[in-house]
Design brief:
Elements (H helix, E strand, L loop, with lengths): L1 H19 L1 H11 L1 H26 L13 H18 L6 H6 L2 H16 L3 H28 L8 H27 L6
Length: 192
């Protein structure tokens, strides 16, 4: 569990600087330059992600049950992770109505992904993984929306092409994860 916690601190910590230490972050960007800051950000995030993966794998070897999920919530998790996948993809597809309306669909998608997983998992290591992601994504979403409102940020108008592309890529990604990658990487088939 220590590797998992360290990885979460590194990954979510780096991604939370704009929320909790925006002035310090801005000073570092000014001091280091945008390129160097992005390099450091990417490196620390990548190391954190690797530690999360390794730590989660280790923690799963000594499972401790915290709560027993209701079997009926499995279907809700499927819908939440599908919606989350579409939202995450919408963050990268230009000119779609989800990005126009939500502003930060990646954060909304991560929130749905984490919340959905908390509904169907009950081990301590699952809670240690998904609760921080849920809290970070929800907090970042709220603060990012407030920043947007304060700055008068308006996102480009969505198009049907952007909507269809976000939807198709999101569904294909979800299918790949649900039917293949989740079992390959995590050892659990979410649809079995």
């Amino acid at each position: 569990m220590p590797l998992l916690i360290l990885g979460l601190l590194m990954f979510i910590g780096m991604h939370s600087l704009r929320i909790f230490a925006p002035d310090w972050r801005n000073r570092q960007v000014a001091r280091l330059g945008g390129g160097r800051w992005k390099g450091i950000f990417a490196l620390v995030s990548l190391v954190g992600l690797v530690l999360i993966i390794l730590g989660f794998g280790q923690a799963r070897l000594q499972p401790v049950l915290l709560y027993v999920p209701l079997p009926a919530l499995r279907d809700l998790n499927i819908l939440l992770t599908l919606a989350g996948s579409i939202l995450i993809c919408a963050a990268y597809v230009p000119r779609n109505h989800l990005r126009q309306a939500i502003g930060h669909p990646m954060l909304a998608g991560v929130s749905l992904w984490a919340f959905g997983h908390l509904l169907v998992t009950g081990m301590v290591h699952d809670v240690v993984l998904f609760v921080p992601f849920l809290l970070w994504a929800a907090t970042d979403f709220i603060t990012a929306r407030r920043r947007d409102q304060a700055a008068g940020t308006r996102y480009p108008a969505g198009t049907l092409q952007g909507d269809v592309l976000a939807l198709v890529i999101g569904i294909v990604t979800w299918v790949a994860v649900a039917f293949w990658l989740h079992r390959l990487l995590i050892g659990i088939s979410p649809l079995a």
